[in-house]
Amino acid sequence: MKISVVIPTFNRLSVLTRALDSAINQTIKPHEIIVIDDGSSDQTRNWIRNKFPEINYFYQKNMGVSTARNTGIDMAKGDWIAFLDSDDEWDKAKLELQSKAIHNNKDIPLSHTNEISIKNGVRINQKRGHQKFGGQIFNRCLKKCIISPSTVIIRKDIFNEIGLFDTSLPVCEDYDLWLRVTARYPVLLLEKELTIKYGGHSDQLSNIDSGIEKYHIISLEKLLLKNFIDPVFKKNAKETLLQKLEIYSSGLKKRSKVDDIAKFDKKIKFWNSYN
């Protein structure tokens, strides 16, 4: 089992050492560590080349985290890919424990772990709605994103079937991808907290855009229109989509967004009649 670690980064030099050290110091060494620099202007390039010459470093103009991850996937020589955001870190045994679990569950193409969340230096207790699950979790993934990229190891060849990260989405690109995975496959959860996720940065994408439901709607519409979903999941996906459309439309009405209200009322009518 060859694991390629893919780390996208953009002007995160102050925390990148922590992520790289946690990948390098794993109890089983990854096949390679790939850093995709998404147009940083903070000397990331020179710093990595001087301090971590063994790292496979690639610079691209700023095109967003989805394009950066997709570049890393394309470059990866391993048969499994482990994502690690540049502001997160791993327990030193993460890759070893996931590798063992995957070995015992060869038909499952994605493994994720529980995580510790740190925001502004303080540990945050996990909300019940963000609890992690294994098995057939598509229905659980419909309402919100419950898989964090930095917890994931995924078989590379699965991208040939489900596609890459959607580069048209400025946020919720992970929600979109995990829906496509879980629509086809069960996933494996390691209960142990093997990932530390840091939040509270002013430039975090989750802090930048408040219209999360809008991008969930886009993802659900794509799934349904492309007939990507197993028929057993289709009913729940449609119901969730209509719920999200109603919520989003209600918000538009409160803000008197007349043009958008008409657009989303038309969507609601279409999906109510869709079979």
Count of DSSP E strands? Answer: 9
Instruction: Kindly report how far apart the N and C termini lie.
Output: 42 Å
CATH class of the largest domain: Alpha Beta
Q: What structural class do you assign from the helix and strand content?
A: alpha/beta
User: How would you name the CATH homologous superfamily of the largest domain?
Assistant: Spore Coat Polysaccharide Biosynthesis Protein SpsA, Chain A
Residue share in β-strands:
15-25%
Summed over residues and divided by their number, the pLDDT gives a mean of 93
Inertia-based shape: globular
Rg value: 19 Å
Number of domains: 2
The parts where pLDDT drops under 50 for at least 5 residues are: none
Q: CATH architecture of the largest domain, please?
A: Alpha-Beta Complex
Give, in order, the helices and strands.
EHEHEHEEHEEHEHHEHHHH
CATH topology title of the largest domain:
Spore Coat Polysaccharide Biosynthesis Protein SpsA, Chain A
Description:
- There is one protein chain.
- The chain has 275 residues and is an alpha/beta fold.
- It has two domains: 3-202, Alpha-Beta Complex (Spore Coat Polysaccharide Biosynthesis Protein SpsA, Chain A), CATH 3.90.550; 212-273, no CATH class.
- Helices cover 43% and strands 19% of the residues.
- It is built from eleven helices and nine strands.
- Strands 1, 2, 3, 4, 5, 6, 7, 8 and 9 form a nine-stranded mixed β-sheet that branches.
